Amino acid sequence: MSHSLSDQRFLAIRSLVVELAASLDRVERHAAADAAALESDRRWHLLRAAVDRLAAGAGRVTDVQELFSDVYEPGWRSHGGPELSGSPDCCGQ
């Protein structure tokens, strides 16, 4: 019998989804004492936007990668190169 989603792929994907849910819960629990700090953290908003985009359908990998990417600047080598991930000007800003 042929399955479009093999048992092996289902278990791997399910594991990733559960791990993601647990990670997000841990972040929220850790930040519970200072929820305002979490809500003001642009990285948290990027993560939430990425999770929203996972349900969008085909093309989600491109959409999520672009969300976390800096905008391409043709002359980037002439002014010091890309910023490190997590820096204030990172991720499309």
Task: Report on this structure.
The model has no long low-confidence stretch (mean pLDDT 82). Helices cover 54% and strands 0% of the residues. It has four helices and no strands. It is flat. The chain folds into two domains: 1-34; 41-74 and 85-93, no CATH class. By secondary structure, the chain is an all-alpha fold.
Instruction: Tell me the number of structural domains.
Output: 2
Overall outline: flat
Q: How large a portion of the residues is in β-strands, by DSSP E? A: under 5%
Order of helices and strands: HHHH
Number of strands: 0
Sheet with most strands: none
Rg computed from alpha carbons, rounded to a whole number of angstroms: 17 Å
Low-confidence stretches: none
The level of helicity is: 40-55%
Mean pLDDT: 82
Please, how many helices? 4
How many angstroms does the end-to-end distance come to?
Answer: 49 Å
What structural category characterises the helix and strand content?
mainly alpha
